[in-house]
Amino acid sequence: MLGLLALGVSGIAAIGVLVALFSLLAVALPGRPQMWTIHLMRRSALLLSCVAATVYFMGMFWLEVAVNESLSGTDSAPSPSCRQDAPVAIEHISGYEVRYLPLRFECFLDNGASYASSEFPTWLTALPAVLAPAAALLALGARHLTRRRTP
């Protein structure tokens, strides 16, 4: 259920990316607004935040698909996401845990050790973690410029 929600949110965010991209390009066309730098900063912030949301929720959907694959089916135990990283230690895999911040599928061995599955790249968390603060800084900068220019 959470996977479908994540897929829906990432789809909406992807549409937001397109809208933000077109509105960002509109600033470069003739007839742009007077305070175009503020519009450029706001629209860039919108674009970055939509890209961050799209990437994060697609990663969340990817995790939920792996969880679903691990919960049901003939070849579900131990988890396929854990087996691909430790083919020699398949009999020692005791479980897994899903983490949403950072996005991670963590596998546990019976001796207490754990490792993150390599099925989920680190950029699924790193990219939104960089883009979201950049979007916030752009939005704050646009707000600062608006306050400075208005009497």
Automatic annotation (TrEMBL):
This is Uncharacterized protein. The lineage of its organism: Bacteria, Bacillati, Actinomycetota, Actinomycetes, Kitasatosporales. Keywords: Membrane, Transmembrane, Transmembrane helix. The chain crosses the membrane at residues 6-29, 45-63, 123-142.
